[in-house]
Amino acid sequence: MVEFDKFDIEENLALLPKRPGVYIMHASDDEIIYVGKAINLFNRVHSYFRNTKKSPKIQKMVTHIKYFEYIVTDSELEALVLESNLIKKHRPKYNTMLKDDKSYPYIKVTTEEKYPRILFSRKAGGDTSARKSKSKYFGPYTSAWGVRDTIELINKIYKLRTCNRVLPRDIDKVRPCLKYDIKMCQGPCKAGCTTEEKYRESVEGALDFLNGNYKPILKMLEDKMTEASLDMRYEEAIEWRDLLNSVKSVAQKQKITAASDAQDRDVIASYSEGEEAVVQIFFVRNGRLVGRDHHYMTGVEDYTKSEILDSFVKQFYAGTPFIPKEIMLEEEIEEKEVIEEWLTGKRGAKVSLLNPKRGIKERLVQLARKNAELILTTDKEKLRKEESRTIGASAELAALIGLESTKRIESYDISNISGFESVGSMVVFENGRPKKSDYRKFRIKSVIGPNDYASMEEVLTRRFERLLNSSETETLGDSFSTYPDLILMDGGKGQVNIALDVLAKLGLDIPVAGMVKDDNHRTRGIYFENVEQPVDSHSECFKLVTRIQDETHRFAITYHRSLHSSTQLHSILDDIQGIGEARRKALMKTFGSIEAIKNATIEELSAVDGMNMRAAEAVVDFFNEQKQ
Prior knowledge:
about 625 residues; alpha+beta; GIY-YIG endonuclease; 5 domains; 21 strands; flat
């Protein structure tokens, strides 16, 4: 780490070379806050510290620079590559950044093999190892599911192998796999099943399909369907018909964008508001639109559209394996020539950055821009609605019961089945959203049988005694060391009073409200300070209270069921002397519920398979003792 207090910026500015390179700006904690490239390091780095007009973002960044370093390169191209790598590695605060780092699926055809396969791949021709393999790649696609479906369809039609056997070396070394037996593979691993020439014809047909030439395959499938139908092989005809319909479906989805121009190209446009931008990219392969995707970029305030696109192109193509022949941009970018040189080197063939001004290409760019605008504005509207649903709803609740804030809400519930393994749940909502990391479970220790009030008293006492125990809260974490703004009880007056009694004993003053339900077990209102407050069932406040109530109940029930499962369906009957697993099952099968067993007579109990008079008396005595 550089001792920045000894770093003299003016002195080091004078030492900068007038050569291409990359400069790295550091803050006081050694954090890299900006990475840039320059044709002339001396001029570029000096510009940050001169009294010239700068954007607010750059002005703010300069105030945080404590020292800088630089790396000299032999060319601007080398500087661009190094800059891209450093930005991807360090993700500096003041660089315009892609928020997502997506990996696209491709279809790989291993044409270098004697008996090629069609595989799913995350790498393509831009990848060094992939280029050496001489395989053919198709993509990128935006749906991995769609890619796998396409591969499955091709293999059904052409019956290509999917195994990893090395052929022809491994022919006849092992028996063919199940796919050969069910006629899903030609069986090149078995001598006499197919020939290399016949297999290659199938591969060529698959390549035609992937290149968008559907006419030969459609005719072949129609002929096979007709032939099978005429021979009254109707089941086989149905199979060919289904494959034919699948190919037609794929053909319809791939819209032709320029019938006379079967090029591979990407179409890129952007739309920005404030600190965020969306960049839309259309993937056109062999003249057909095969997919589209969008990326979010942050830190774009004060950046021009050209600068946003420049930054996107460098970051996106530094990470994506496939680079098309043409990249059509909404606006021309400043570093066009050096980026073209860089992409050409990565692709191994000429790459052009274009800025179309007319015709179908220009309309396609504008379509991409409209999509980018729609995505960003829609997402902002979603965010506004989400804030109304969460933070806004929390503020509504606070206003309803007269509190300054209900930022942190804790809600409690008790769950038990016939007194077995009573458990308590503590659910936390912050700013109207569940904070699951703060959820807590309580296994009731001091209460025997179904007593929800006593169980709740134990849960609340344990939770808030731990809060007050300073020596313990040091290791408790946020869940137990943070005071709630409001406690919600899953019930009305009774549960609220239990909570208020516990808090009073501990000397705590925390608001407590009850979530009152109607006869149909749905949220009806809020019980607070001895008054039930009605809540508008159409309000966000009502929906928030309902979500909290449902989540509290769900969490308690889930915990209880996990305990129930872990103890192998422990029953209260297991606590009765003389009642084992066989008798418990027989009693439950006969009576159907614990309540029915409680109300049964000794004669009725003793008549159950496996029971006797002594065991029946033990059951009656046990439940009589519980009633006392």
